Amino acid sequence: MRLSLPALAAVLVLFSAFAGVKVVSFPADNFSIDAPPDWVSLPLPPMQQGCRVIASAHSEKSGDLYVVMRADLPSHGSPSAFLAGMQGPLIAKGWKASEIRDETIDGKPFAVFTMSQETGPPFMLMATTFADEHAYVVQVVAPNHNVEEAPELNTIVQSFHFLQPVHSVNRHDATGDNFSYQIGRFVGLLIGIIVVLLLVKRATRSRS
Questions:
Q1: Which residue in 26, 45, 63, 201 has a CA-CA distance of 20 to 30 Å to 138?
Q2: What is the value of pTM for the model shown?
Q3: Burial 111-135, CB ≥16 within 10 A → b, else e
Q4: β-pairing verdict for 31-35 and 22-26
Q5: Confidence class of residue 17 from pLDDT cuts 50, 70 and 90?
Q6: Would you list the domain boundaries of the chain?
Q7: Could you give the count of Cα atoms lying within 13 Å of 142 in the half-sphere of its Cβ?
Q8: How much of the chain exceeds pLDDT 70, in percent?
Q9: What is the pLDDT of residue 144?
């Protein structure tokens, strides 16, 4: 027996409920993710320079956080330059970037790297895919432990799913250009602001 798309979606939601996650769908942006059901949504900043934060939530228990954003990247844009631009403001803050590695999520190529402070394990991971003249960035932050050893955060990243078919672009397919670098740099600045606010909030709580 073949299920219709609505029926299949209902089955997926039901299964996710038993699995301890909820499917969060964004039809206007053509993707969904699985998120812990008890995480609290955070206010979203307005769209700026073609970059929009689509979803953001955190755990009040662990302080872990996820953010999904989408940036405009024209067809002639360079994924590699975008990624270099995104890392730039973070490295300027004194954080160390890992090597970018290629992963496949939901059959699509993702560029993945982590950020760490001078001491301690990586506390932030970014997974970026390029499709239909956009860059989709999934950012997860674990302020109190190794981000790559956080099962909930790994589930969020690995659950990214396009609702409709897209044309993906591999990060190795184009050479660098300044325009793509500047778009990536703006995303990196936005990510840095989000992380700094999170760390300030954590420090304030620890003093109270």
A1: 201
A2: 0.82
A3: bbbbbbeeeeebbbbbbbbbbeebb
A4: antiparallel
A5: very low
A6: 19-207
A7: 20
A8: 81
A9: 87
